[in-house]
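User: I'm designing a mutation panel for ABC transporter ATP-binding protein and want to avoid disrupting the core. Could you give me a predicted structure to guide residue selection? Please restate the sequence first so the numbering is unambiguous.

Assistant: Good idea. Sequence first, for numbering, then the predicted structure tokens:
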Amino acid sequence: MSLGTEPDILLAAHALSLRFGGVLAVNQVSFELRRGEVFTLIGPNGAGKTTVFNLISRIYQPSSGEIRYKGQVLTQVAPHRVARLGIARTFQNIELFEHATVLQNLLIGRHVHHRRSLWREWLFTARVREAERQTRRKVEEVIDFLDLQHYRDTLVAGLPYGVRKVVELARALATEPELLLLDEPSSGLNVEETGDMAFWIEDIQRDLGITVLMVEHDMSLVSKVSDRVLAMNQGEVLALGTPAEVQAHPGVAEAYLGSADDASSLRRPRP
């Protein structure tokens, strides 16, 4: 089989490189993402993790290399069509419509599924009405799933930061993705909120069957939810494997985690 065409491989990156002028931000990065797993990119600031996310999201075009999603060459897909393929993303810096309600933000997320013609919208035909009801049902399901009922009609601008992070996650889920990209989901959260985020990620993987690709610095969250970890340094792959395997790599503790004590937190807790 060719790259990324095996049935259990959802996304495959091969020899990805990206230059910004004279800076090689990503250098020959390759990995495969299996269906149903949580796969996490770790590394210090400037390691190239978010740049890899931006390549998958089609914000950047790679200088060389290839990305395949469900066997399709993703680097040939227009950026505005990525969400329709089943890829959703959250951002480290929350990107919500602050002067809209939680419900309205999620309805905006459903826009990717709109396939109706303009004249049907004008006439508000039976098909349009049924599509609107379906959209509402899906959004309410996400609100219930993430326990956002209390906030559904609240303006985002009035919400605590931790709730906003969950709302952004909800908007991504409203698109019904097969692949969810989470860019530092614990950023700005306290310990309790980070624990809640781990709970949501586990439920998204287990109950919804969504594959998760995550960039994260919090090693407690990484060890709790990740099936595999890719450690990067200066735009290159340093180690790839289970949390325990990455922790055992001789260069990881110093390059990424600062100390052996920090590295030990990558070990999965015993059930």
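For picking mutation sites, this is relevant: The chain has a mean pLDDT of 86. The longest strand covers residues 9-20.
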